[in-house]
Design goal:
mainly alpha, about 65% helix, globular
Length: about 120
């Protein structure tokens, strides 16, 4: 059976990724204003989602139902600039993880179409 990203990187690295990612996001002038609710809740939801997204347990769905990420992001104006800022923060965070370069690249390749799918404005 093929290993998932979650198997390859582990729960600790998902938690580390989310922490480092949001340290960058909350400082980013382009996307920080999109994150207005409880920062700890935002981070916990992202940890749960990424665990599931990368092939781990279905933590997010178990609590919140189907992710429906595009629908959940519709109230927030997300353009190409915001998607690129999100990807930049994610890339920087992924690059700090103590995992193989190939896994880092593969993770980003998986995230790019997901981020671009969230774009809902010109």
């Amino acid at each position: 059976m093929e290993q998932t990203f979650f198997d390859k990187i582990g729960e600790e690295n998902i938690t580390l990724l989310v922490t480092r990612f949001y340290d960058l996001v909350f400082e980013d002038k382009t996307i920080a204003p999109l994150f207005k609710t409880d920062k700890e809740l935002i981070k916990e939801k992202q940890r749960m989602f990424l665990t599931q997204f990368f092939g781990g347990p279905s933590l997010y769905s178990d609590v919140y139902g189907h992710p429906k990420m595009r629908a959940r992001h519709m109230p927030h104006p997300i353009g190409g600039k915001e998607a690129e800022a999100w990807l930049s923060c994610m890339s920087q965070a992924i690059n700090t993880l103590p995992i193989e370069e190939k896994i880092k690249q593969d993770m980003m390749q998986r995230l790019i179409p997901t981020a671009m799918f969230m774009v809902n404005k010109e």
